[in-house]
């Protein structure tokens, strides 16, 4: 009798768990009643013939976040779930996650520094209005370009300011000048100086990381000569606020850096919340370099990128 019960319970379990038969279908197939099938399935679990593993994606995401915090000595890591390992899909989900994180984080009298680009614009589009007082929003780097490529610089700052009920502070300049001398003249302007100083004072900075690949946004904007592009591609790993760094997070070219308008990378290390929003296989090297440079203490990414950063 025990062997027969064992045989029936295993067959019932196979039909139920592997072939997706209903209990009524199994009863008809085995020539027993439906309550008997239920008892057979319970018996199969009690005897260890069936092992059920429940995978909670949120628990897995929490584990990834914990491991990233430990490996890169970060204060906070937010890992979101992306159903596809594609750049556009990942961008959609990390931007939503960042917008939600900011809505929970921003408080009265915070100064929020923001950059631009497609990722930052996506974050801005997902922001929900929050009733706060005395918040300021400032652009962390220049954004004017004569290129046909849209940087979404003004739109991004505007949307941030609208969400937090304040007035946007722009840096109405090219992000990179052709010469250091011209950049120095601009630095002497009192209005520009106040905006740059406000960016330094920001306690929250929200930014993404760029790459040094052929399709990098700053390369397409036409700010660099072919020789400069080759220099950055050979030495660089990525950029934050249009300042390029190598795999260790060190500035690649002091000459180009001195022509760049906006916050210095070293200032990001002093922020209460320095939030890096980035994901996708093409950005893994740049994210690693940014974290090596200690430019962020908060990371928002997806599970695919998190796994790549760990391994």
TrEMBL record:
| A single GO BP | regulation of DNA-templated transcription
| Record key words, sorted | DNA-binding, Transcription, Transcription regulation
Q: Which Gene3D superfamilies match?
A: 3.40.50.1360, Homeodomain-like
- Coiled coil feature spans: none
Q: Where does the record place the HTH crp-type domain? A: 1-58
Top-level taxon of the source organism: Bacteria
A GO MF label = DNA binding
Keyword DNA-binding: yes or no?
yes
- One short Pfam family name for this protein? Sugar-bind
What family is this? Belongs to the SorC transcriptional regulatory family.
State the name under which the record lists this protein. Answer: Deoxyribonucleoside regulator DeoR
Report the source organism: Paenibacillus pini JCM 16418
């Amino acid at each position: 009798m025990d062997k027969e019960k064992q045989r029936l319970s295993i067959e019932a379990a196979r039909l139920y768990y592997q072939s997706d038969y209903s209990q009524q279908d199994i009863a008809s197939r085995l020539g027993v009643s439906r309550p008997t099938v239920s008892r057979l399935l319970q018996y199969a679990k009690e005897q260890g013939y069936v092992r059920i593993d429940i995978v909670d994606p949120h628990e897995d995401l929490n584990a990834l976040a914990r491991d990233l915090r430990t490996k890169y000595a970060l204060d906070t890591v937010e890992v979101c779930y992306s159903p596809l390992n594609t750049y556009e899909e990942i961008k959609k989900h990390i931007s939503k996650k960042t917008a939600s994180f900011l809505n929970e984080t921003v408080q009265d009298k915070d100064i929020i520094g923001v950059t631009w680009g497609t990722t930052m614009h996506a974050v801005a589009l997902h922001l929900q209005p929050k009733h706060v007082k005395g918040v300021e929003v400032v652009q962390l780097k220049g954004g004017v370009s004569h290129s046909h490529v849209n940087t979404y610089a003004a739109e991004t700052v505007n949307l941030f300011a609208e969400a937090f009920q304040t007035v946007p502070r722009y840096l109405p300049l090219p992000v990179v000048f052709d010469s250091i001398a011209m950049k120095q003249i601009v630095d002497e302007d009192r209005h520009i100086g106040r905006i740059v100083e406000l960016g330094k004072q920001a306690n929250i900075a929200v930014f993404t990381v760029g790459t040094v690949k052929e399709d990098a946004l700053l390369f397409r904007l036409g700010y660099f000569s072919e020789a400069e592009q080759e220099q950055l591609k050979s030495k660089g790993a990525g950029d934050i606020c249009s300042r390029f760094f190598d795999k260790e997070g060190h500035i690649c070219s002091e000459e180009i850096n001195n022509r760049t308008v906006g916050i210095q990378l070293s200032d990001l290390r002093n922020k209460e919340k320095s939030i890096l929003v980035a994901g996708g296989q093409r950005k893994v090297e740049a994210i690693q370099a940014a974290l090596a440079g200690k430019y962020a203490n908060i990371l928002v990414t997806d599970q695919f990128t998190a796994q790549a950063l760990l391994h």
